[in-house]
């Protein structure tokens, strides 16, 4: 192709006699020339009728093109009029362009650069020898319009490696209105596409009108920094600096939120300043054996998290300040954990610290037994919230040891599992004085089950009757005479037998692997001691998990109270994904006043140690009915509706309530994600608008 254009220049009468040495330079530079009405004058090849000059990694198209060779240098092109420049993956338009092929340096006046989905409009664009792009007095946005809905304006900017941008004197502008200014900015364009700018407006309820904005002002090397500004018209402003970091190898991560507001809580009108500092840090060593995690959550008051609840203003710290190190060795799992109280309004079991040692199980192949154990050593400090001065904090050193040995044997269709073990706990002192307290509990368990199976077409049905006997010896020391820090300190004498029948239904689909479609478990417990009533079999339980189709799931958890002849509890849930545009979920929950609220429903030590009347007058008795609804509807590729509802009634000493949230989601002008939300809470209601600037990431 080069020779074609060379011949064109040699034999075209309009060329005006281009010297052969100049044409040779064109070939040496690897240039291709396609010009209309080509002319030559004083060492310059040019046209004023349009053409294209192509070089390594560069294509220049314009109405007026001038090609010359400086002394002892390479080719220089000047172009203007109907200008279009293609430089690598960039596309430019502008008024005038100059490029030096020897120096690999160019300058574009009043130009616009496109790097999907970004657009850079600048008074001066500089093409640097290393492939970077420099901008003077530039405007950065995601739309080609002359008056974009939003833009970033920079005095100077440099775009490196097609994605990293450095800017100086950066201003965020919405329409013609400037919002804020940053002296310096450094970011990753790919990360900036993840909602770089968010706006929200809320009004109504106790908080009144509130406007807010979040801007991602730094993104580099896995670190994102964001600035948040809020204004409550009834109260005052609030600001936050937030960070999100993930290392390139994915082994280190960090998230922080540092929010401060000039505000007062509803409970304390004299309060002048409110804040919340949250953080999550984690690291895993290169060999994957050691894991470190740290979380903290410092709040100015108990209502801070509720008053300022936002989905993007909340880290999953659980209001905990804690740190842990876990190390996995070939024979031992070691963890060091500490938790401290930094909020006066919380009740916290401080661990200062606790060491856990869990050896890998030991297998005795000759007898078929497996032995395992767990050891916890720590200093515990139980600190009550300042709002409950009638209760006194307590602390003690604690040593916990739990050895266990178990065996599984088969006798035809019968499978028997036996477990023997014990629990030993030592405290540094007693609640009412004394230097030492020791608690010992023996435990044993034996379970037998028979599995009966039958295949019918594409279904496989399994019936599994089972019987389990569980026993705990009386502790060597009554719970009234030692500290109770958590559920692992509350031991008492307990003996019961669980008997039931489990049904499993599997379906074979297109693959050979079976898919469980139904699990039903009907069981009850026979207690030898007191468990909240006169009947030794206090309740009959029935649990069901049913997946009739891959898109439908039904869950039932229920129990009938034989002592009081009433429904103990019932949880029914249905989840249904009709298609990619419609999904529904509904749930109904009810529990009687005799259905104790416990962390572990199958832990019966509380039932056996406390009488019914004391439990009824405590917070573990919590009768209520609850109805939940959640749904998603996509009416149009650009329009969706979300609905969440919660209705509660029959609450003891509390009023009925209805809470719901309706969200309408859409996209405006292909770049602004809009969520209109109406939120009705138990004691508040509000309307909120959330604007997020968002684009899909370009292909890398």
Write up this protein.
The chain is mostly beta strands and 700 residues long. 5% of the residues lie in helices and 61% in strands. The strands form two sheets. It has a 26-stranded antiparallel beta barrel. Strands 1, 2, 3, 4, 5, 6, 7, 8, 9, 10, 11, 12, 13 and 14 form a 14-stranded antiparallel β-sheet that branches. Strand 7 and strand 8 form a beta hairpin. The longest helix has 10 residues, at 2-11.
Shape: elongated
Main beta-sheet annotation: 26 strands, antiparallel, barrel
Helix fraction? under 10%
What structural class do helix, strand and pairing data support? Answer: mainly beta
Assess the beta-strand content as a share of residues. over 45%
User: What is the count of DSSP helices, taking H or I runs of 4+ residues?
Assistant: 6
Rg from alpha-carbon coordinates = 36 Å
Q: List segments where confidence is low: pLDDT < 50 over at least 5 consecutive residues.
A: 1-16, 695-700
Distance from N terminus to C terminus (CA atoms, Å) equals 32 Å
Overall number of strands: 42
Mean pLDDT: 82
Which helices and strands occur, and which strands form pairs?
Elements: H1 2-11, H2 20-28, E1 32-35, E2 39-41, E3 44-47, E4 51-55, E5 58-62, E6 64-69, E7 75-87, E8 90-100, E9 105-115, E10 118-127, E11 133-141, E12 150-160, E13 164-174, E14 177-188, H3 189-192, E15 197-203, E16 210-220, E17 223-232, E18 237-246, E19 252-262, E20 273-284, E21 290-299, H4 304-307, E22 321-328, E23 332-340, E24 348-359, E25 362-364, E26 369-383, E27 394-411, E28 414-427, E29 437-450, E30 452-456, E31 459-472, E32 494-508, E33 514-527, E34 539-549, E35 552-561, E36 566-579, E37 582-591, H5 605-609, H6 612-616, E38 624-636, E39 639-649, E40 657-668, E41 672-680, E42 685-693
Antiparallel strand pairs: 1-4, 2-3, 3-6, 4-5, 5-7, 6-7, 7-8, 8-9, 9-10, 10-11, 11-12, 12-13, 13-14, 15-16, 15-42, 16-17, 17-18, 18-19, 19-20, 20-21, 21-22, 22-23, 23-24, 24-26, 25-26, 26-27, 27-28, 28-29, 29-31, 30-31, 31-32, 32-33, 33-34, 34-35, 35-36, 36-37, 37-38, 38-39, 39-40, 40-41, ...
């Amino acid at each position: 192709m080069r020779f074609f254009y060379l011949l064109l220049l040699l034999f075209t009468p309009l060329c005006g006699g281009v010297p052969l040495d100049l044409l040779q330079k064109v070939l040496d530079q690897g240039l291709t020339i396609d010009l209309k009405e080509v002319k030559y004058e004083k060492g310059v090849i040019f046209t004023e009728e349009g053409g294209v000059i192509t070089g390594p990694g560069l294509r220049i198209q314009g109405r007026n093109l001038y090609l010359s060779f400086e002394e002892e240098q390479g080719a220089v092109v000047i172009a203007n009029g109907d200008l279009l420049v293609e430089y690598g993956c960039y596309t430019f338009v502008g008024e005038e362009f100059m490029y030096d092929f020897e120096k690999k340096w160019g300058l574009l006046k009043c130009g616009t650069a496109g790097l999907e989905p970004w657009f850079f409009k600048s008074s001066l664009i500089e093409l640097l020898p290393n492939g970077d792009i420099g901008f003077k007095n530039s405007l950065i946005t995601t739309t080609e319009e002359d008056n974009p809905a939003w833009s970033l304006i920079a005095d100077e900017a440099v775009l490196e490696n097609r994605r990293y941008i450095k800017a100086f004197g950066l201003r965020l502008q919405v329409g013609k209105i400037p919002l804020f200014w940053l002296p310096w900015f450094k970011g990753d364009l790919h990360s900036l596409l993840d909602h770089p700018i968010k706006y929200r407006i809320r009004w109504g309820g106790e908080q009144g009108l509130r406007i807010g904005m979040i801007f991602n002002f730094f993104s580099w090397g896995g670190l994102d920094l964001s600035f948040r500004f809020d204004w409550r018209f009834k109260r005052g402003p609030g600001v936050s600096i937030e960070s999100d970091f993930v290392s390139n190898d994915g082994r280190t991560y960090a998230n922080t939120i540092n929010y401060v507001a000039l505000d007062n809580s509803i409970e304390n009108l004299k309060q002048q300043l409110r804040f919340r500092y949250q953080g999550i840090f984690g690291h895993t060593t290169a060999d994957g054996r050691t894991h470190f995690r740290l979380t903290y959550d410092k709040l100015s008051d108990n209502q801070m998290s509720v008053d300022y609840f936002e989905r993007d203003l909340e880290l999953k710290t659980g209001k905990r300040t804690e740190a842990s190190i876990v190390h996995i060795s070939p024979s031992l799992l070691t963890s060091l954990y500490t938790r401290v109280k930094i909020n006066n309004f919380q009740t916290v079991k401080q661990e200062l610290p606790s060491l856990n040692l869990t050896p890998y199980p030991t297998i005795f192949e000759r007898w078929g037994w497996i032995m395992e154990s767990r050891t916890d050593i720590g200093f515990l400090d139980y600190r009550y919230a300042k709002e409950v001065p009638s209760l006194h904090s307590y602390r003690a050193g604690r040593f916990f040891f739990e050895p266990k040995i178990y065996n599984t044997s088969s006798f035809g269709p019968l499978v028997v599992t036996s477990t023997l073990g014990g629990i030993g706990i030592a405290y540094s002192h007693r609640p009412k004085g004394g230097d030492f307290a020791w608690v010992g509990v023996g435990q044993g368990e034996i379970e037998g089950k028979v599995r009966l199976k039958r295949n019918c077409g594409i279904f496989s049905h399994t019936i599994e009757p089972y019987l389990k006997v569980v026993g705990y010896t009386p502790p060597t020391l009554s719970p009234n005479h030692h500290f109770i820090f958590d559920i692992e300190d509350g031991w008492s004498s307990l003996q019961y037998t669980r008997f039931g029948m489990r049904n499993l239904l599997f379906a074979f689909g297109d693959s050979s692997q079976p898919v469980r479609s139904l699990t039903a478990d009907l069981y009850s417990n026979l207690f030898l001691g007191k468990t909240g009533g006169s009947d030794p079999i206090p309740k009959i339980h029935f649990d069901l998990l049913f997946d009739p189709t891959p898109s439908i799931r039904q869950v039932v958890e229920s129990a009938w109270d034989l002592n009081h002849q009433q429904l103990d509890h019932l949880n029914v849930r249905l989840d249904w994904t009709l298609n990619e545009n419609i999904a529904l979920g509904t749930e109904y929950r009810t529990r009687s006043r005799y259905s104790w609220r416990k962390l572990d429903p199958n832990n019966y030590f509380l039932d056996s140690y406390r009488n019914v009347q004391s439990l009824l007058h405590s917070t573990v008795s919590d009768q209520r009915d609850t109805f939940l609804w959640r749904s998603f509807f996509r009416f149009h590729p650009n329009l969706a509706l979300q609905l969440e509802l919660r209705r509660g009634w029959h609450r003891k000493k509390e009023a009925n309530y209805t809470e719901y949230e309706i969200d309408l989601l859409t996209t405006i002008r292909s770049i602004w994600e809009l969520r209109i939300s109406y939120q009705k809470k138990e004691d508040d209601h509000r309307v909120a608008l959330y604007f997020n600037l968002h684009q899909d990431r370009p292909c890398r």
